[in-house]
Amino acid sequence: MQEQIRNHEANTDVLLEIKNLRTSFRIAGQFYAAVDGVDLTVKQNEVFAIVGESGCGKSAMALSVVRLHNMNYTRIEGEIHFDGNDILQMRPQELNTVRGAGIAMIFQDPLSALNPLHRVGAQIEESLIYHTDLDKAGRKARALELLKQVGMTDPALTYSSFPHELSGGMRQRAMIAIAMAGKPSLLIADEPTTALDVTIQAQILNLMRSLQQETKCSIILITHDLGVVAEMADRVAVMYAGQIVETAPVTELFDNPKHPYTRSLLNSIPDTQSEESRLQTIQGMVPGLRDMPREGCRFSHRTPWMAADTHEEHPTYHNVGPEHYVLCTCYKHFVFPEGGV
User: Fold this and answer.
1) Which CATH class for the 3-89+218-271+279-332 domain?
2) Residues 14-54 pLDDT 10s
3) Phi/psi zone of residue 242: left (φ > 0), alpha (ψ -120 to 50 degrees), beta?
4) Which pTM does this prediction carry?
5) Cβ-count burial of 319 within 10 angstroms (0-12 exposed, 13-18 middle, 19+ buried)?
């Protein structure tokens, strides 16, 4: 966010610092920003959650951190400092030393992320070849150890299996084993439980939590599930239309949400204790890249009952509590309309 936020966290143990990140994609010869002016920090040994609807730029930002976009169609501007070095200034060889050993990523669809032509064991060992000096026997032993660590009941069988021979939960565990092979200090988990049923989701989240506590790595957790955020995260950033609209410690965000978008997301959670059958929704949709507002509060078109002068023409961040920042003064005037939305 702005300089005041950076100064506030200047003396903390910051592992990742993103400054004014702008990721744009080329469409019909023009570039449109999916991530627009994002500032955030991730501290040592913390779980930092990023929430928001589909199309808000969460995954685009995560892929920018490890530079996995196709640069023929993508433009990334700003600064991404990891462990003191700007990732956007690294040459490919330098970047390869960071991927896997410094920063690892768990993708939301393990079946498409895993190579269908290689056995699981070989895919784990690939990271070990790049980031360790283990010999062939040592790599196999480490791969089996990792598979056991992520809860595989028969590590040897999984080691020799192809991805299509595993269940969804087993594939995600294999993805986590690959991610943890290089002992990264930052793990980016992009919707790691999306394709799994509820029981397996809980197992994967428990696994990630135990691995994080054991290895002391930091996690960026991208999710739609606010229940997962409440259970897993230390701090939360709420993202809308390519911008961070609110960031706060997790308890503060749930107890004292400020931005209209944050409050609308929380209001949309079904209340199992209420007899009210009507599910609260948010009016409208996230704007597409070509339709992204260039000025003013980007959430204003979804709160048409609010007067135009309640939004800032050039939204800035406001400190409303310890480590709690909100974009735009519209948070001071927001109320839900009578009869719901």
Assistant:
1) alpha beta
2) 999 999 999 999 999 999 999 999 999 999 999 999 999 99
3) left
4) 0.91
5) middle
